[in-house]
Amino acid sequence: FKDHELPWKMRMTRYADSRFLPGSFEIHWLSIINSFVLVLLLTAFLTIILMRVLKNDFSRYMELDDEALEEEESGWKLIHGDVFRFPEFPVFFCASVGTGVQLIVATFFLLGLALTNLISTTRRGSILAGLVVLYCLTCSIGSFVSTRLYFQMNGKGWVRCVLFTAALFPAPVAVVFLWVNTVALAHGSTSALPFSTIFTIAALYALIAFPLSVVGGIAAKNYASHDFNAPTRTTKVAREIPTEVPWYRSRFFQMVISGFLPFSAIYIELHYIFASMWGHQIYTLFGILFFAFILLIIVTSFISVALLYFQLAREDHRWWWSTFINAGMTGLFIYAYSFFYYFHRSGMSGMLQSSFYFGYMSIVSFAFFLMLGSAGFHFSLLFVKHIYSRVKCD
């Protein structure tokens, strides 16, 4: 036995020391470098390719007179009267965007608290408990964003939008939890939550989360701007969308590309997170995780904007839902990776472990779908407003 000067309460800091696991630490930094290089490549792509194409488009559209404009219009300029036509199912769309923003804010707060050691990252359940509390406290943000966007879309049933936003994420979580807890009780497992804990979570939602959602909706109704400020006027009749497109411009191919590239930037870090969640390893590199999360949002947003330009260039004005789904496809790739990890890395088996694993991973993947979809949509909206505000439209 050797006596050490390290206090007992600081014993877990040993795992945060880079010299303790030098190989693992280098792999984390290689993952960050991989993500950063991808960001640089995408930035160069958007800067050189897109701006060059847009510059040519701007020059062509601005120099043409009215008669020539009618004859020569093609591409994204041709759909200026339809590009700001609001999407189908506006309540569902606005609730998804608002919930995604709320989850992004809650995630940043959680990572910030973990970095400052205000949340004990080595204590079992502390991260999850902190996330539940932060989600409840940020409900007003999600409701405010969704209701403001709904009013900008000329929506009338704002109460329904608030209720949908308040239930969009908690409802699937409750369904999965009820199933998982029922399986745990049937197997006599100690992982089943007691009634007191379930009652506490329900009280947090009923007394904090839902009232804050209502407050956020009311604030958006009374104080937020209800003007969408579209740079072009929307025509009464929707333009017909070309049906014959090359396979590399199809919706399915765009979804695969928009999900795979961001996933390739985080899959190394994702492996260690899985090992911490479902294995016996301890994850302490929250600074790297914070940086990786920012890079993930940037990569996803850039890819969404790039794919959006190609969609508009083929005269497809239905970009609202497609942009959101494209950006959120990384969540589906994360869920697909969870199958690989379960069968080849975890060593888990049986009904109980499978229910816990795939049930909670579906919630995590759904959260990433909403977060990245919302981020990609907001960047795409800024892009569309910018390019259509720079050209002459009758």
Structure, briefly:
The chain has 394 residues and is mainly alpha-helical. Helices cover 71% and strands 0% of the residues.
Set down the secondary structure blueprint.
Blueprint: H1 22-63, H2 66-72, H3 90-115, H4 126-137, H5 139-152, H6 158-168, H7 170-186, H8 195-223, H9 251-278, H10 286-313, H11 319-346, H12 350-388
Helix pairs in contact: 1-9, 1-10, 3-4, 3-5, 3-6, 3-10, 3-12, 4-8, 5-6, 5-8, 6-8, 7-12, 9-10, 9-11, 10-11, 10-12, 11-12
Main structural class = mainly alpha
Q: Counting H and I runs of at least 4 residues, what is the number of helices? A: 12
* Uncertain spans: 18-23, 68-73
Q: What overall form do the CA principal axes indicate?
A: globular
* Alpha carbon gap, first and last residue: 84 Å
Order of helices and strands: HHHHHHHHHHHH
What percentage of the residues does DSSP assign to strands (E)?
under 5%
Report helical residue fraction: over 70%
> Strand count, sense and closure of the main sheet?
none
Our Rg estimate from Cα atoms comes to 24 Å
User: What is the count of β-strands?
Assistant: 0
